[in-house]
Amino acid sequence: RQTAILSVFVKVTETLQLEVVVDVIGEGIEVERELLRVQGVVGENERQVNLKDEIFIDRPVKKILETVTDVKINRKDSKILDDKVIVEGVLCKQIFYVDECDDAVFEKSIKEKFTTFVDVPGAREGKGQTLDVDVKVEFVDHHLPDYPKWICGAFKADEFAPEDFPIDQTV
Q: How many CB atoms are located within 10 Å of the residue 8 CB?
């Protein structure tokens, strides 16, 4: 089993057109104005997301050296609804590990889709608002299974079943 903890920050903005004073001219006081377009913040909020899944690696693992993570947001499928935002993305992980039997280093890439809701009061569907999303991976930790002493013999005889030894990963 693996657990991934993500921090999802969203900001909803909308384009505003404001009339601003650009010059004030003497005697009778003549005020010059221009229209200015700005992005006004409608609302923003943050939410932690906990993803759980099992990871299966094709060989017995002695230790995890490093996990490199990256989050890709699916901007097309993330959307603004009334007072909330749906965020869809993919957590990409590269796990570098040492093999239990040969002490060789290997890499396993995993892509995990996620969807979450973030409450943003004032957000309105179909009102031309813009969405900005920032996702950070907050924590990475691993718990390896306790392999029996005979595991290397089973692996070399092509009798190792990874699904019998899931890796517990906390991200």
A: 22
